[in-house]
Amino acid sequence: MSLVQQTEKQNMRAWLLAEVPTSRHHARMAAWYQNWLALKRNTLAMAGLGILVAVIIIAIFAPILAPHDPFTQDLANRLKPLGFADHLLGTDSLGRDILSRLLYGSRITLYIVTLVAIIAPIMGLIVGTISGYVGGWVDVVLMRITDIFLAFPKLVLALAFVAALGAGIENAVLAISLTAWPPYARIARAETLTIRKSDFIQAIKLQGAGPIRIITKHIWPLCISSIVIRVTLDMAGVILTAAGLGFLGLGAQPPSPEWGAMISGGRKFILDHWWVATMPGIAIFMVSLAFNLLGDGLRDVLDPKESGR
Amino acid sequence: MKKALELIDLNVWFGEGADRVDAVKSVSFSVRQGDSFGLVGESGSGKSTVLRAVTGLVPYWNGTILVDQKELGAKRDKHFYKTVQMVFQDPYASLHPRHTVDRVLSETLQLHGFKDIDSKIPKLLDDVGLGASFRFRYPHQLSGGQRQRVAIARALAPEPKILLLDEPTSALDVSVQAEILNLLSELRAEHNLTYVMVSHDLAVVGHMCDNVAVMQHGELVEMMTVDKMRNQQADHPYSRHLLESSARYRA
Lengths: 309, 251
Fold this sequence. Notes:
The complex is a heterodimer.
Chain A: H1 3-16, H2 24-41, H3 43-60, H4 62-65, H5 98-134, H6 136-151, H7 154-165, H8 169-195, H9 199-205, H10 211-247, H11 259-266, H12 275-302, H13 304-307
Helix pairs in contact in A: 2-12, 3-5, 3-12, 5-6, 5-8, 5-10, 6-8, 7-8, 8-10, 10-11, 10-12, 11-12
Chain B: E1 3-14, E2 21-32, E3 36-41, H1 47-55, E4 61-67, E5 70-71, H2 78-83, E6 84-87, H3 101-111, H4 117-127, H5 144-156, E7 162-166, H6 174-191, E8 194-199, H7 202-208, E9 211-216, E10 219-225, H8 226-230, H9 237-250
Parallel strand pairs in B: 3-8, 3-9, 6-7, 7-8
Antiparallel strand pairs in B: 1-2, 1-4, 4-5, 9-10
Helix pairs in contact in B: 3-4, 5-6
């Protein structure tokens, strides 16, 4: 690195770490940089972030990275063990290369997880905060609806939705989201109830703020950290629910290399050919673990009170 | 002199039916413009509730409240919030934990329709004795006294005429209390404000106010000038008792 570049970098650092920010933009950048430094100090969170970044890169470059076509069947070489010929992770019951299928499957998994992680918490947040803030009959109606959703076993409810909407990944995502939002609504409502009477909400009311501004700008930021934790804890469950739907023929459809469906496919051979189910299992485990680690670290960073310590 | 705030037969209650608790019972008083009015009484006597009723933060009340000789309806409008502002008791609870000082003030200014927000914020901070270096801090990076200064800056932002002070110093250290009280006195002179101050600390009220009303069990039992209060010249037995016990406590 040349000297000029080095001083430039130092200047940038000094600017970002300035004790007294000079503008709103500067303050925001400095806050982001401080958050990043705090996250960087958390080794486990960085490990989680590393795994997730790796998965995203794998998903993008799957066609380049995969040694085989994930759909080509080779019945002569079915259920071959790890390291057979050039099949690093062996082959499945139809002779398809498991490694290639895992690489391609990361796309589907990320797709499902991202969509559910966006739809369900936001829906829960909206329902929960409105319910908690407005109260009265609105609260009663919204919470009874939530109770109805909570009263059904998740997979059964998702099954009913998929059966009604038709099979496929998009509908599976929608069905999982529809069954996953009630806990978020409950959390958000509980948080809202504890803050809606607080002085800082009263204070902004005295400035003439309406309920929409209060909910979105004052209550939501305080609900985020508990929601983030719940999202990261739910991720593994979401992947498995998607797998369950795939297994029942209502989620990802057969040739597509969805990880959950691969586990379901490998179940029949688990005693004699353990790798067929185990390899996608390890993949799911790694991704869920990464979400958990990152979520935990993010929670600490997102709470300015915590980061100040 | 013009009356800035007048209450006639104000009643406030919580709950309905058998659970009904009358927190304020037919309280009437008026505050002249530029005056500083103190409400004293023991905990639960309804003094804070009077302020909350004026700002519309209590659900059930009746009676007449006049601000600038105009009667208030059931809902408070933008104009009311521009005229009357409040400083809360606990500065640790009255600032949003995730909002910087800048955000608190700019949102307030924006809600009141000010245009030159960026130039107004440093001036507001300067008014309450905080430098521009505090602008982008979070509440947890401030001390109790600094937080209360931010809360006062927020209340001053809409350029109100009447400031309601709900025990603004009771959550602070004694040394900081004096600073905040002096700041409030200076601001009153500078901006020609009318104060209504609730406190259970008679020394604070004696320092800040011209007229004092004593409340007990939700009723206003006596009004007197602050000189009368200092000289222990109360007529009502309860206010006499209150003044005596306060004097004994200090002695």
